[in-house]
Design brief:
By secondary structure, the chain is of the alpha+beta class. Helices cover about 40% and strands about 10% of the residues. Strand 4 and strand 5 form a beta hairpin. The longest helix is centred in the C-terminal third of the chain and has 13 residues.
Length: about 170
């Protein structure tokens, strides 16, 4: 991702932000849509586009758990593990999804790089617990472990999204 491409994304929304520092987060989110994560070059491009130092941009990127500084799967599945979901079986759902993708019970990316399973704090679907969120966009629940495995199979058979919004 180049600084010009990032400027092309943030310039039309610049007026919505009172402080230029607030543009760093949308710039980072846009920059990671290409690969699903950020490289050193992406951080430098965001720094150039926003006018802040690469170190400052990296400090912002490392604070947020949905800004990825390491490669992820083509699809990221976040399992809510906070109280409502935990009480309704989120632990069993998470472990089943991890087993289905062959990753440790702490989450991770499948060997083929198709799916990343991760824990998430409250996704706001307490009335539909346990729930999962796909690519930080589509939240579904309640899901049984079998429902979750079917969702992963469906994600594997669907085409890669053009942009990897997370």
């Amino acid at each position: 991702m180049t600084a010009d491409e990032i400027r092309g994304h943030i310039d039309p929304i610049r007026h919505e932000y009172g402080d230029g520092k607030s543009l760093i987060l949308p710039a980072l989110k846009f920059a990671q849509t290409e690969k699903g994560h950020l490289t050193r070059e992406d951080l430098e491009a965001v720094a150039e586009a926003t006018g802040y130092s690469p170190a400052y941009v990296e400090s912002v990127a490392s604070f947020y758990d949905r800004i990825y500084l390491r490669p992820t799967g083509e699809r990221v599945v976040s399992v809510c593990v906070t109280l409502s979901c935990m009480l309704r079986g989120a632990d069993e759902l998470f472990e089943h999804l991890c087993d289905h993708e062959g990753v440790s019970h702490h989450g991770g990316t499948s060997e083929d790089g198709a799916i990343t399973i991760q824990e998430a704090q409250c996704l706001g679907y307490c009335d539909r617990a346990p729930c999962v969120q796909v690519d930080a966009e589509e939240t579904q629940g309640p899901l049984s472990p079998a429902d979750g495995a079917a969702l992963l199979d469906q994600l594997r058979s669907s085409p890669r999204p053009e942009r990897l919004w997370r």
